[in-house]
Amino acid sequence: MISFPELILNIAVFLSFRPKYRTGRTLGSGTYAIVKEAIHIKTGKYFACKVINKKLMEGREHMVRNEIAVLKRISSGNRNVVTLHDYFETAHNLYLCFDLCTGGELFDRICAKGNYYEADAAALVRIIFSAVSYIHSAGIVHRDLKPENLLFRTSAEDADIMIADFGLSRVMEGGIGGEKLNMLTEVCGTPGYMAPEIFKKTGHGKPVDVWAMGVITYFLLAGYTPFDRESQQAEMEAIIAGDYKFEPHEYWANVSDTAKEFVRWCLTINPNERPTAEDCLGHKWLASAEPHFVPDPESPTGGPTDLLPHVKKAFNAKGLWRKAAFSIRALNRMTILAGTGYAFSNTHAEAQKLRDNVATYKEESEKEKMEDASVTHQHQSESSPSSPASPTYKAEGM
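^ Protein kinase domain-containing protein, sequence as received from the core. Prediction below:
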């Protein structure tokens, strides 16, 4: 017969492994994970929960361990970086609980505005670069900075913008001051935002994030990316050569020379000569007390020109980052998961087989309800829960 102390211990163990969350709606689907709304049972607070089927992790647990290691190092240290609040396992899935960002993606917010000036773009770039500087100071390189990974915390006008999706990020190791990423030569990221050294496989580190920020800045000022081409091969060649222009003239005539100079600086081909995130924050386009702009010839006071009409026109015409085709990022993740060593083809039999399996495993993940599952491992969170979410959702995806 079980003793009273043993009974108490068993009850305590049972309670400690009871689910802390209740399953909400499915918010999105990424390359090999789904993202669901999770409601903390005790507090009623909302989170975005990345759900990964453990069948996809067999033999490749290092991928998820790396993301957790990155997020534990930087979570709660900067208000503009998404926080990992909790992570736990059930028999079938791994769950990672993040801030639930409800304010939408960066460019959607810009397009919804009544007007948009160069000073607005500079303010956004300044905030994001400050967060990038924080990430770099923690020894992390993001490697997938792009507009889709910049989310607003809430729908409020003054809501924080957040850097999300650290699935491709790495903790820096080796080299002087940990600046080299052990000369990693994997081709990863989203093609239009990738630095030349990634394509050239010469080794890369923190400078790739500065390059991506240069592309994002160009995009924020014009509504399209500098290296957009008809094919990925042509796009890659343009990036390696640094082949871009501030054209068409009608779009860039309303942008100051200071802003163009800033973009050129970020898009320095040689990573050893490229500025750091801290250097960029000291550039006059971001650091000057007075905003830089081209005066509107129709303004009686000489105020700044509204960039929104041209930006929206270009964005709607191109639809650049809403393309349905597989990105290099997705293909490489699929390849790593498959363990095939094959890359850059979505017609290969192994790649097709993996895609079919991923779809099946993601369907299995979605069926599990957190409140009904048995938690096999509960990892204590080191940060406080976020505030309750509003009804409109946009979650960080994998």
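Residues 4-16, 174-178, 320-347, 381-398 have pLDDT under 50 and may be disordered.
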